[in-house]
């Protein structure tokens, strides 16, 4: 396995790494084959969480996400002289991807982040993911690439969506650096709405509110102590 | 009774159907891509439909304890519309995906030259993507259509055991049996084939390579016809193991050739409690996967 692949896919065991090498070789023979190699990665390389406590890979990319990132990094270098071709194919892989493939594209973006031409293609993918209620996609969209490139409004809405669909805020990259008073206000209002509906507030809300103490004071005293995280929307797939 | 319905269009069924199917023993299905009743006018409509089969419908089935697979293809009817034929260019992206267990439904509707071209091309795609094929036979001029189907399959070089020829009846079963292809029967409420005629065919031809499905869709159809056929077999003196072979093991064996089934060995109770590393006939079992919580209306 090359150093670049090892960096993209640190959790693959020896067998999976060897299979990944074979796919990179197939890709080198004809880079256009990415359209059928990319969807087949979980079957052909490895599938599963890198961390058993994180089955959805919201905090640490799953094995198949890592392998797909390595393939995209390899493709980017094969088409280094034609970056537009690469970004076009990247957008196609997302468009035609199932949820697992879309998540992998989102996860790969920070490793592929090479400048403005890239952002014109990849930021719309992040925005698309944030329009879904799929916890896997929302979590991946709020990773390092989203933290670096989403405008403040979209980023704050993304954090709120995490609380709404039950994505742990551990999945949000740069939470400490980007959280601001406006985000804290939105989170406090959301928690008040839940309290009014007789529902507990997501425990992770305190990770934002604690840093802007005055905004959530009433929530602390109103008996809506942090407790059960509200993940109804995520488990039923239904907005409540 | 555990049931794998190898041909059913769940997109056009309700959640009541899913509940009734589960109660009757259905634990897995394959939904082949087909015509939607209202003709499509662009490739984009196909792609959204394929995405729905792989995404939303799989999630919806999972909510009711049923493993959902699909077959992807340009259907015979729309193979005649030049606005739809370009979908052939994007099929390879879909045929590479997990949970896609066959190319289908392909075949003839009106036996046109355009249908034959799309059919031949997709037999080729099945070979390239190492997938079995689900072939629809026409409702009109069925015997001639089935004969031509078998000729094209033979010319394609695909091994017959990777081809399932569907919607058969007493007049077409023999030629398919002789070809070595799998034999599919769609059991409908009043026309075409019913469960008692099916039992008679099983008596005459045996159970090998026999596949029974409901082919339920948006037309008059019954998603419980698989279970009712199983009951008719028992009433006629077949044993429980015979029923299991026709309604579970045969479809698992046929689609298992894809290496992409999303079921476990037990099949009966979903994935709970089984070995996470288990595979079944080389088919991976997707575990630790959270359902797609995408919005619904
Ligand atoms: Zn059908």
TrEMBL record, chain A:
Q: Per its UniProt entry, which superkingdom is the organism in?
A: Bacteria
- For region Disordered, the annotated ranges are 220-240
Q: Which InterPro entries match?
A: EboA_dom
The name on file for this protein is: Sugar phosphate isomerase
Q: What species does this protein belong to?
A: Phytoactinopolyspora halotolerans
UniProtKB/TrEMBL annotation, chain B:
Coiled coil region boundaries = none
- SUPFAM superfamilies according to UniProt: Metallo-dependent hydrolases
Q: Which domain of life is it from?
A: Bacteria
Q: InterPro entries given for it?
A: Metal_Hydrolase, TatD-like, UCP005295
Q: Which Gene3D superfamilies match?
A: Metal-dependent hydrolases
- Keywords of this entry: Hydrolase, Metal-binding
Region annotation Disordered: where it falls in the sequence: 272-297
Q: Molecular function (GO) terms listed? A: hydrolase activity, acting on ester bonds; metal ion binding
**Family note:** Belongs to the metallo-dependent hydrolases superfamily.
PANTHER family according to UniProt: HYDROLASE TATD
Q: What is this protein called?
A: Hydrolase TatD
Q: Which organism is the protein's source?
A: Phytoactinopolyspora halotolerans
